[in-house]
Design goal:
mainly alpha, 74% helix
Length: 137
């Protein structure tokens, strides 16, 4: 008669025990340090890009400004067209309603930076969920 688990090597047993235990402090520290670098470097790069391009717009921005103004004024026929998606224009129109006296370009750049931070948060959440499922050690 053999004992249950007697045919397993000590290495297999250690792997099973470590898989059932919470992650080690070293791996959590390493992950938190990488996340901190991600957030600091990403936010800093996004802020620098937002500041350095504060006077620049491309041709698409003009169309989005017009659509945002149509949303703000309630002219729904000008909001929807076959070229540009209305989602960003609706966000821009809402931002213009919140800050009506701010320059339009400033509001657009601030909204772009906010959308960039939201995309970083989505990426961070995605990676943390994948690491939780797959495991890091």
């Amino acid at each position: 008669m053999t004992l249950p688990g007697a045919d397993k090597s000590p290495r297999d047993t250690a792997k099973e025990e470590s898989a059932s235990e919470p992650r080690s402090y070293a791996s959590m520290f390493r992950e938190s340090r990488i996340r901190l670098i991600f957030w600091v470097a990403g936010s800093l790069c996004g802020a620098i890009l937002t500041y350095t391009t504060r006077h620049y717009v491309n041709g698409d921005a003009i169309a989005y400004f017009d659509m945002a103004e149509a949303f703000r004024l309630g002219v729904w026929s000008d909001l929807v067209n076959l070229t540009y998606a209305p989602g960003y224009s609706i966000l821009l129109g809402m931002a213009r309603c919140i800050f009506p006296h701010a320059p339009e370009l400033f509001v657009a750049k601030a909204l772009n930076f906010f959308c960039f931070l939201a995309a970083m948060a989505a990426c961070d959440l995605f990676v943390s969920r994948v690491l939780a499922v797959v495991g890091t050690d």
